[in-house]
Each structure stands twice: as structure tokens, then as C-alpha cells.
What does this fold into?
Amino acid sequence: FLFRGISMKFMIVTLGCKVNAYESEFMLESMLSSGYFYNEENPDIVIINTCSVTNIADRKSRKLVRRARREHSDAVLVVVGCSTQNNWEEYSNMGIDILLGNRKKSEIASLIGEYLKTKEPYAYYTKNRALDFEDMNVDKFTTHTRAFVKIEDGCDNFCSYCIIPFTRGSIRSKEFLKVIEEVKILVANGHKEIVLTGIHTGSYSSDGHDLSDLILELSKIDGLERIRISSIEITELNDKFLDLLKHNGKIANHLHIPLQSGSDTVLGKMNRKYDTEYFREKIKKIRAIRPSISITTDCIVGHPYEDDECFNEYYDFCKEINFSKLHVFPYSIRNGTAAASMPQVDDEIKKIRVHKLLKLSDELELEYYSKFLGEELDVLTEEYEGEYTVGFTSNYIKVYLKGEYKLNQIYTCKLEKINKMNVYASVASCLKEESKI
It folds into this structure.
């Protein structure tokens, strides 16, 4: 494509989750294959993939759009995603050239091409929750050594605090054989680890196959060393999955299982589908299978009805479960959700509680890392940070190796010390017998 005699440049800005990261990667590939060039300096086209999971995410999204319009006034401005879906009328008045909700991201290159011909603004939005899975295929991730693969979209849980069922629609899944084919291509293009992701990944269902069936089939692909799940609900860790976890060594030794609250009172108000006893017993089963597994979680602080007693129960439960890391978020009112009309917790109280859980997270993380000092773990190298090569273990410990090692290689490394939450190691050997650069 030519614009005033100059090859057109574009950039993409992504906010939010791994699903957004995957969709942005698809848009990147689609634009490149259509003849555009990626360049963040003086782009002719700016694509912003927004997020609406919290009020802060919405504010960030709007701020980025305003700044893009101000700093790149002559550029074609394309804005898509959850924040536009959730705040359609507001974005409709922000001078955006192409405005999409959470549909038609797969058509981004053709929509931009049409706009360049006609100069007519385009907007597409639907409130329909019953949607087909919008197929996208990524051949190679440019931003990570790990490749994300979106296998599912949408959610039907309607937790009282969450806007996502309204912005993403109902649960639907990518066809079983299409996922397998996409992963084969990613592995052929050099990816050793794939991350299965979705809005409600554990609800995957296609052609009579569930998530366990999919993982079992993917594990047969030669060259694929690790299969990681971005997030999975405790209620989806059934006996079939636990049996697979026991016998399939390609599943990463890490599960991210959202807790959201450790108080049964608050869990009930959240409309979560379990109580603390259910959560506790399921974690025991997981650790009986894999004693060294890393279990991380999401924690919402200050949800309506969370009084001091509830928070203390929450804090004690997190400590008892002994997570390896807590991702802590203050509750954020989402208009249109059930919790928005409930009695709210004071913001200052939220801040105090967030600080307490973050401090606990640091303690738990350090305790978990310390268990592996002196042990050898496999590290998949991902990037360089100063004088170090950085990678991740199967149980998702970020490891720093002194010197330059080849990226996208699996090295067996001895964990030697922890300094300011950074874990340092030395290389013992390489899975593929690659030598140091």
C-alpha cells in the first residue's frame, strides 16, 4: 500500500490480557502480510487494542486514544477492544477513523485498506452475546519466545464484579483441529512453549473435546516442550484434568487459579461457584500430584460486603493455601454489574488491605523461590536484560543468567541466589546442546 508515494507505517498499542496480546499479534501479522511496515516513529496508522477490566484500564485506554490523536493528528486512528465495547458512545465522539468493539479484529487490514480508498469513517458494534468464534491464526509470535494461542472467547459466569461477560459475549471455542494445526505451525517456526489462553480457558469445548483432550493431543507434537495454561478456574480442574496433570510431563509445573476472595461471605456476594473448603481440597489434590507446583492466583480486595472479619479470613486463607504469588487488585466499580449497586468499601480501607496482601505475596514468593536454591531446573531463555540472559522455568520462576546465551533455548540451570526477588542461576547444560554465545 502506498500513501502519498511513501510506504505506509503502522504501530499497535496493546492493553490488558493475553487474549488481547494474541489478537494484537494477529493484527500485526495481518498488516505486515498486507504490505504495511511496522514503525512506531511517525506512523501513518495507529491501532489501539483497549481493555476494560477495571476503571483504571478504561482510563488508560481513553488517555492513549486522546494522546494518539494529538501526537499523530494525520494518522489513521483505529481503536478496538473491550473498552470500546463497554463505552461505545464515548468513543464514538473521539474522532476515531475506524472504531470496533470486540468483533472484526480479524478484518483489520481490509477495513484499513477500504478506509484509505474512501476516507469514510467505519464503526461496528454489536450487543449480541451469542457469537461465533472469530478465527485468527498466528504463525509466529514476535513479542515473546512463548507463543499465546487463543482457544476460547467469552464468559457466562457473570461474577457480580465483572464486566467481561458483557464485553466479550458468551463462551465459544476454536475448532479442535484448527488449534492443533496452529500450534504445529508455531512449533515448526521455533516456539518451544505455547500458552493456551482465553477469557474462560478451562471451559474449552469443540467437537466433543474438552481442554484435557486438547492438551493430550498437543503434547504429541514433536518439538513442543511445554504447554502452559494462562488461567483456569478451580471448578474446571476435574479428575480427568488432574489425571492428565499427573501423567503428562509437557504441562508446565504452574497453574494460575483465580481465588478472588478467601471469605465465603464475599465469595457468595461475588457469585463465584465455590467456597473456601472446595478450593482448599482441590489444591490438596493438585499438590498430592505435583508437590513442587507453583500455584499463583488473582485477589480482588475491597469487594462489597468485605468487612474486617471477611478480610482477615481472606488473608489467613491465602497464607494457608501458600500460593507462590498473589496478583492483587482493588475492587473497581463496573457500571452494569450486580456489585455496582451493593454497599461499597471505603477507598482508604481498600488501599490498606491491598498493601497487606501485596506484602504477603512478597513473603510467599520469596519462600517459594527459596525452596529451589541449589536445585537444577530447566530455563527457557527469552530476552536480554543488561548483562543477563533472562528466562523462565516450567514453574514460572524468572531466572537471570550472567552473560549472553542463545534465546529460545532450554538450559538446565542451577539456582544459586536470590537478591531483591530476582533469582540468579548458572548454566549446567543445554537441552539442545547449544553453546554459549
